[in-house]
Amino acid sequence: MALKLIKRMYYQGKVVAYLKKNNSILRYKLAMIEEKYLTTKYRVKPGYPFEDSELLNQKIDELEERVDNKACEILYFNPLAKITNMVMAEALKQEKVEESEIEEDENIIVYDFDKYIEDMKLRKAEEDAERGISRKLHPSCKDFISTRNALADYEYDNRTLLHLSDITPSFIGDFVDYLADERISNENHTYLTKGSLVNATINKRLDCLAALTRNFYKDLKATEIILEGKQDSEQADVIRLTKDELTSLASMDLNVESECRIRDYFVFLCLTGLRYSDFCLIDKSNFVPHQNGYILRLYTHKTIKRAEIPLTTKAIEIAHKYEFRFDYYTNQAFNRQLKDLLARYDLFGDEIIKYRQIKKGVEKVSMLRREKISAHTGRRTFISILVENGVNLPKIMAMTGHTKESTLKIYVDRFSPNLKDAIVPLEF
Known about the structure:
The chain is of the alpha+beta class and 428 residues long. 48% of the residues lie in helices and 13% in strands. Helix 10 packs across helix 12 (313-321).
């Protein structure tokens, strides 16, 4: 069999039909199999323990040939066509060939998740284009990709292919345990996810799976089963700095320029509540003079919502110091240097308790508070201090770019002034 366009490759646990053309990449799954069972030409070795290798190779060859023929057909009619996994899947489906593995196995969850995510990417890209926003990936897609990858890891470890009919209370219980377990890659296999998820993140994965069953499959029963598997999230303390701690950190004498820079950037985040992705994008044009000071005005990267943040004297001082433009660090690099700085000066070394899901139970984990401090702690610090001082939620949302009051509920529950404090102005 001589292929015209397609090249066979191995990618993330799968033998795939690969094509790069017209600024698009096709990696269409031909078979899910460990690389150690494959020859150098990505054919299944004799003695494959889970299926007859000769029959499996025949199935892979036939599907690969169909993908190649379909790619040639698409490009014949439209030489500029972008052939993605979703485009190829839809094209093959329309053929209605009974021998197609995809036709035989309807409602394959990971396969359909790929289509769902591709469609979401296109919709979000169109929404961004209408707003004049340019970015590689809309933030709302990330949780769905992580959920899809966790399901693929589950399939690999359990030697199974998940279908919609597999969504049962028993499976959801197993999947929750799987999300909580740690996964360690080795030379024979690299996992797509690491596991060891806490309850709140496990619930996000279940929400994404429920979105697939509700919106793609229109299966309300499966959706209900998934949502019933959500875990109770023990509420640990919000990791933040108090106003006194922030004041003390901002006034520390530091002699090393790199330490001063990391400290100043973090203090600025605490005084503005910016997401780190927004902080990296601001420049002098975002600083607008206002009433003998400045307002920081921007459209937030995540929610595309206009935010206006009045700047304190200290925030303006930091902005002036760095000429209204902050050097770029990746989020990971910034967080690593911040943690190193806090450890070097033994700051915020009090113990805190975090909770994580372990085999349908909850494990308490003790750690130092500074180990959980990151760039995002600045945002939590900003919000909690405002709530403590009685600033109402609409005003906070106008500064932070939040779109739902419910997102701020944890801050209101923990940091709102006591009712008795609220009547102090009436005392005489």
